[in-house]
């Protein structure tokens, strides 16, 4: 790290109708440093990053890159000035190979063969193992991220922006990513690292700029600063650590018995011989690397995919072959992983999105089929109030809410319907610390009232923090159920890798 | 060096603009008048006069209005009826392009029932024909629906191809099965206008109002209520937004596909039945005149909103009548009128950009 400044951000302000996204933000990224940008959702991180990447024009303020005035009109300008970005949501085509995907993003791509060898060189040089001929659809989230990173590195960036890079990675993949970032840093590339995971930031970043309410509230050395202090700067108050109160009874709430499921198309994962019991009041964690069958399991449990009648029992009912709405009536509710386009419809307002799942259990539709919009609106307002969803009103489109707020809405919508069994996939993925903590508390509170909960997650810390018992999922199979207490992240890491003592393979 | 300066840039709106959604149809009409005027001028006609003849004369010129005004309802009736049905599917991303075929089959089935009773009298004959017409269109539309549900075929292609099949059937029955035995060998069925029990007469003389128009008006209101208040309308809406979310909501994509195609087929069939028993009077080789295709424009011009469709249907009918008048008065080719109607859809779709994007004018500055 040197003392030469690469990018100076000086008094950048941007406001949208009704919201100030950035206000007079000032900080400097030095050449060869890993600079963290920390903040709650809605703190203005995305707007700021989009400004740097040329997607948003600031209302006021200027930026200087290497001492020259820098005001990109579009990402192409940013890239030509040496600024590259890896987004949280990858923009890759599943049906194309790695090399084809990378070629698509280039202004004048070389032949696929030449590009492939280039990709291989970079992948070896930076410790990002990837096969350029593989279909992107068959890659894990970590590998897909490598594709995005390589795409950026091909442009020899001076500044690499990474948005929530570890949110989809396993502990091992995180280690690989960090060593790549350190190598880039040694070579003089600056990295702007956006995250809300304090531990990650402490282990890799040299400097941290903290945003709150659109303003820069502090810059510090995250290695020296106390975690609690940083968190306090981020949210302006101390984060409540979720409190757990175990109330597991002996009554079986949900039982899955020899679930075998063969997918219809190759993009889905086969599930093999899954059996477990979930007790009333229990929180069961299911951990695994993305794409090992979590989404399929969620859909089968929720009722979006039907299976044999006897494979799933909810209290006294066999429910394997009944649809999602009947399961809702019986008390089984779900919050799927994908917030936009699955759990909620981005272009519809919150009231309509409430009706999306609450129509049966909350009786929001009359017998005649006429929707009770008044009752729906009241329920929506209740969700907004109880779960502190920050929105101007209930009539805004779901897609305009920040990730954390939308997730609070999605979780709140299900929790307030008082589920007997609640299945939630990735409850705090891409959600800021304050929202995550309130979501976690809501899940714990739900369990303490006697509901049974399944948390499917890739965030191992979250599973350790919240769950009573743990099962790993790997290639569509599940490990034995073990008590979470006493488990370490390393042990869980082994389990989700499909090895260790808790696996009984059936084939 | 930065590029892309000095241009109109489009910035995505956080939410689609409600204002522009309602303004663009009017802008599209104006743009069509303007560019259409240029086209008429290029054809050597006086553009102002041509536009006046198309939009003004059918309504207000005393020489033509008494004939043209009732014709507007006669033409708008089937357009509105068909477009209402199509709009349901279009909301759910189900593209029934074959309403023309369903219209033909509805007419054949309805007329067939009527002709089967000829010459007996009875109050029940016309209602039976209405049911047969709706059922015919419904079943014809269920072909693409079932193929889509079972084999995931593309409903656009299948429904469109079935139009040509329906046209062949129409020719066949006009020449064979349904040919008027007392018609001196000419193709075409008996004229139902002269068979009282099976006819769909003008209800109020001089207005063009017939049962089909009444049904279209009633269904406009019912569709509106269904879309805004009923869970079925909500399910159709969410299916169009995201299949995954719809399934999560407990809506079966297959059911929505069947309902949307079935209802639009039934309404197109009804339109065919009211036409064959009313204004047209008989099954003949050239019975269909493209209502099924024009209704697609009507559905979009009306923003897939039932009352929008009502207005768009009337407007489109006006361009039909006015277009015929312009052909007659100015000798404009029929193709020019069709191009004129096509422009309307073109400008409307182009205008749609403004509902989702905001234009931003940037000026050249060197950085």
Task: Please give a structural write-up.
The complex is a heterodimer of chains A (507) and B (367). Chain A is of the alpha/beta class and 507 residues long. Chain A contains 16 helices and 21 strands. In chain A, strands 13, 16, 17, 18, 19, 20 and 21 form a seven-stranded mixed β-sheet that branches. In chain A, strand 1 and strand 2 form a beta hairpin. In chain A, helix 11 packs across helix 12 and helix 13 packs parallel to helix 14. The longest helix of chain A has 16 residues. Chain B is built from 15 helices and two strands. A two-stranded antiparallel ribbon of chain B has the order 1-2. The N terminus of chain B is likely disordered. Chains A and B meet through helix 2, helix 10 and helix 11 of A and helix 9 and helix 10 of B.
Q: Point out poorly predicted stretches of chain B.
A: 1-5
Q: What structural class do the secondary elements of chain A suggest?
A: alpha/beta
Q: In percent terms, what proportion of residues of chain B is strand?
A: under 5%
Profile the largest sheet of chain A: 7 strands, mixed
CATH topology of the largest domain in chain A: Rossmann fold
Summarize the entry for a quick read:
The complex is a heterodimer of chains A (507) and B (367). Chain A is built from 16 helices and 21 strands.
Per-chain topology:
The complex is a heterodimer of chains A (507) and B (367).
Chain A: E1 5-16, E2 19-30, E3 34-39, H1 45-52, E4 60-65, E5 68-69, H2 75-80, E6 83-86, H3 98-104, H4 112-125, H5 141-153, E7 159-163, H6 171-186, E8 190-195, H7 198-204, E9 207-212, E10 215-220, H8 227-235, E11 252-261, E12 271-279, E13 283-287, H9 294-302, E14 312-314, E15 317-318, H10 324-330, E16 332-335, H11 350-358, H12 373-386, H13 403-415, E17 421-425, H14 433-448, E18 452-457, H15 460-466, E19 469-474, E20 477-478, E21 482-483, H16 489-496
Parallel strand pairs in A: 3-8, 3-9, 6-7, 7-8, 13-18, 13-19, 16-17, 17-18
Antiparallel strand pairs in A: 1-2, 1-4, 4-5, 9-10, 11-12, 11-14, 14-15, 19-20, 19-21
Helix pairs in contact in A: 11-12, 13-14
Chain B: E1 8-12, H1 18-42, H2 47-55, H3 57-60, H4 62-91, H5 99-117, H6 125-151, H7 155-175, H8 211-229, H9 231-241, H10 243-248, H11 253-277, H12 291-301, H13 306-330, H14 334-351, H15 353-356, E2 357-361
Antiparallel strand pairs in B: 1-2
């Amino acid at each position: 790290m040197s003392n030469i400044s690469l990018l100076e951000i000086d008094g950048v302000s941007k406001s949208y109708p009704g919201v100030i996204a950035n206000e007079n933000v000032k900080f400097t990224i030095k050449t060869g440093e890993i600079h963290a940008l920390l903040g709650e959702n809605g703190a203005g991180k995305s707007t700021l990053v989009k400004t740097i990447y040329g997607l948003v024009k600031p209302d006021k303020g200027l930026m200087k890159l290497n001492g020259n005035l820098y005001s990109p009109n579009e990402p192409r300008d940013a890239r030509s000035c040496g600024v590259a970005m890896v987004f949280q949501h990858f923009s890759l085509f599943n049906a194309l190979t790695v090399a084809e995907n990378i070629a698509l993003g280039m202004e004048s791509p070389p032949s696929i063969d030449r590009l492939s060898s280039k990709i291989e060189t970079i992948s070896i040089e930076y410790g990002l193992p990837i096969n350029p001929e593989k279909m992107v659809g068959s890659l894990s989230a970590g590998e897909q991220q490598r594709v995005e990173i390589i795409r950026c590195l091909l442009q020899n960036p001076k500044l690499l922006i990474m948005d929530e890079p570890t949110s989809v990675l396993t502990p091992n993949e995180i280690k690989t990513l960090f060593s790549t970032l350190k190598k880039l840093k040694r070579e003089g590339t600056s990295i702007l690292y956006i995250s809300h995971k304090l531990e990650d930031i402490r282990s890799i970043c040299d400097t941290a700029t903290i945003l709150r309410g659109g303003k820069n509230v502090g810059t510090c050395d995250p290695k020296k600063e106390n975690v609690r202090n940083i968190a306090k700067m981020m949210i302006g108050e101390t984060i409540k650590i979720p409190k757990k109160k175990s109330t597991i009874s002996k009554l079986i709430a949900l039982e899955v018995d020899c679930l075998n499921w063969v997918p219809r198309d190759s993009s889905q994962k086969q599930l093999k011989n899954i059996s477990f019991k979930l007790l009333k009041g229990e929180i069961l964690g299911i951990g695994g690397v993305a794409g090992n069958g979590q989404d399929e399991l969620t859909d089968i449990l929720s009722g979006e995919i039907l299976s044999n009648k006897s494979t799933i029992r909810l209290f006294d009912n066999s429910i394997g072959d009944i649809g999602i709405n009947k399961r809702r009536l019986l008390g089984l509710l779900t919050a799927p992983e994908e917030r936009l386009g699955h759990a909620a419809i981005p272009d519809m307002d919150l009231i309509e999105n409430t009706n999306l799942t609450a129509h049966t259990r909350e009786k929001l539709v009359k017998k005649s089929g006429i929707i009770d919009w008044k009752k729906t609106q009241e329920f929506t307002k209740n969700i907004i109030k109880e779960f502190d969803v920050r929105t101007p009103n209930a009539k805004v489109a779901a897609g305009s809410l920040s990730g954390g707020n939308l997730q609070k809405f999605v979780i709140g919508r299900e929790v307030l319907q008082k589920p007997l069994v609640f299945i939630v996939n990735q409850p705090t993925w891409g959600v800021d610390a304050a929202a995550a903590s309130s979501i976690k508390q809501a899940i714990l509170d739900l369990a303490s009232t006697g509901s049974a909960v399944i948390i499917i997650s890739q965030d191992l810390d979250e599973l350790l923090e919240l769950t009573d018992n743990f099962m790993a999922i790997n290639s569509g199979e599940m490990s034995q159920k073990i008590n979470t207490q006493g488990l370490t992240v390393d042990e869980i890491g082994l389990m989700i890798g499909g090895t260790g003592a808790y696996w009984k393979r059936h084939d | 060096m930065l590029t892309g300066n000095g241009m109109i840039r489009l910035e995505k709106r956080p939410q689609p603009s409600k204002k522009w959604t309602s303004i663009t149809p009017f802008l599209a009409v104006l743009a069509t008048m303007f560019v259409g005027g240029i086209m008429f001028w290029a054809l050597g006609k006086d553009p102002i006069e041509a536009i006046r003849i198309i939009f003004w004369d059918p309504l207000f010129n005393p020489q033509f209005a008494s004939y043209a005004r009732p014709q507007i309802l006669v033409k708008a009736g089937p357009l509105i009826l068909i477009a209402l049905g199509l709009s349901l599917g279009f909301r759910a991303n189900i593209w029934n392009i074959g309403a023309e075929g369903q219209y033909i089959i509805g007419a054949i089935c309805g007329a067939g029932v009527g002709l089967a009773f000829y010459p007996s009298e009875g109050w029940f004959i016309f209602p039976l024909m209405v049911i047969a017409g709706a059922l015919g269109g419904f079943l014809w539309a269920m072909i693409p629906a079932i193929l889509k549900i079972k084999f995931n075929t593309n409903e656009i292609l299948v429904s469109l191809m079935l139009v040509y099949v329906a046209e062949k059937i129409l020719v066949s029955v006009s020449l064979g099965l349904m040919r008027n035995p007392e018609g001196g060998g000419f193709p075409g069925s008996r004229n139902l206008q002269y068979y009282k029990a099976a006819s769909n007469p003008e209800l109020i003389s001089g207005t063009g109002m017939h049962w089909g128009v009444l049904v279209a008006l009633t269904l406009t209101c019912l569709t509106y209520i269904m879309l805004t208040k009923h869970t079925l309308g909500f399910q159709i809406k969410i299916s169009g937004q995201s299949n995954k979310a719809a399934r999560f909501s407990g809506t079966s994509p297959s059911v929505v596909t069947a309902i949307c195609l079935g209802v639009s087929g039934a309404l197109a069939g009804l339109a065919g039945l009211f036409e064959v028993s009313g204004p047209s009077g008989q099954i003949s080789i050239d019975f269909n005149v493209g209502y099924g295709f024009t209704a697609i424009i009507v559905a979009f011009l009306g923003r897939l909103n039932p009352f929008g469709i009502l207005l768009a249907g009337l407007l489109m009918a006006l361009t039909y009548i006015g277009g015929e008048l312009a052909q007659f008065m100015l000798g404009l080719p029929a193709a020019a009128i069709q191009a004129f109607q096509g422009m309307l859809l073109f400008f409307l779709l182009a205008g749609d950009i403004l509902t989702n994007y905001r234009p931003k004018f940037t000026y050249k500055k060197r950085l």
